[in-house]
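Quick one:
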Amino acid sequence: MDLCIVVAASEKHDPRHVARVMMAAEKAAGGLDARLSIATSPGEVPSGCRGLAVVLATGGTEHILLEASKSHRGPMVAAGIPMANSISSLAEAAPLLRGRAHIVALPGLDDGAIETLGEALHGLAAASRVYGSKLLLIGEPSPWLIHDPTPLLEKLSVTVEVLDPAEFASTVKEAGWREAEEIISKAEDATLAPGEPGRSLAVARSVFEAARSRGARAVSPACIRFLHLTGANACLAHALQHAGGVTVGCEGDVAATLGLLLASEAQGAPAWQANIAGAWRDRLLLAHCSAPLSMARRFRLRRHFITGGSVTVEAVLGLDEVTLLRLDPAGGGAIVLEAPVLDPEPGLEMQCETQLMVKAPGLALVERGTGNHYAVARGGLGYRLRAAVESLGLGLYRLE
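Output:
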């Protein structure tokens, strides 16, 4: 069970009003695996939920909300409505919940409010699938990743297993993977090194098998470290996430891969991990050597920009707007930013293969951001991701 949604009401409540709130919460949770219940005392709040949402139907419910926040260990959302003193109770409890839950004051029970609550619940669901999860690293993080992600791991209760690259390399065997072969056969053209795409497909398949066999929701290969052992990077694994069924980051970047997992869960499809490759006052160049093919309008297969081998993807992403997410490795918060796409195919020299130019405060993201790698998802996910971040007890950083 991903979610528990609790409608909290005072012991003396109007059953018809509470039934309306229940119906609104049920509608907002459409499509989610959720358990809906009523609580008139703290003891009626269910336990064992991965994510918990408490919707205050009436006043006099502060104690239910606060006791739930103490006993529940995962991500949490608290909501109130301008009826029956619900919003009064939320206002009273909010100062004690900040840094623990996402707090949302709904404007009522109309369709707009239900949509807002639905976005918050989808963000909570995404957060619940990241909290307490397992991340597999294949090799230690690349040496240019200088942040210590321990505080973030502790905040999200995430465990990390490191697989020795030599052990991983021993599992890589070239064998047919028909689904992946059919996907990459749709490339407009291919300029590849000898032996490709066979070696890269074998590495990609082994990356997914290693993650699944260890119960990891996400994997981040430190590609350069096992390149000489396997003969290929894992760029194609990132491109084939939708076929492999596991979120694939890059370079052993723990914070970035967890952000990628969160963005992917919020999007309901793989997100893209990208570098800040160029920054100006109001523009940002995003680039990386691969991209999920499920996000691509069209794509070409290329040699790796740095090594000259392996298979990388030069994709044109079919997006007019993107949502950017970066988790702070120090565990303090995150940046969530919606950015219109200025150029879906910049084609700039001396950059990784897949590129995207967006309208965003590029200089501020470099000067006041929290690192290089960003998760890139479709546009319109800003509120959902902000809800997810705050439900995990992380703050939201502002660049103004």
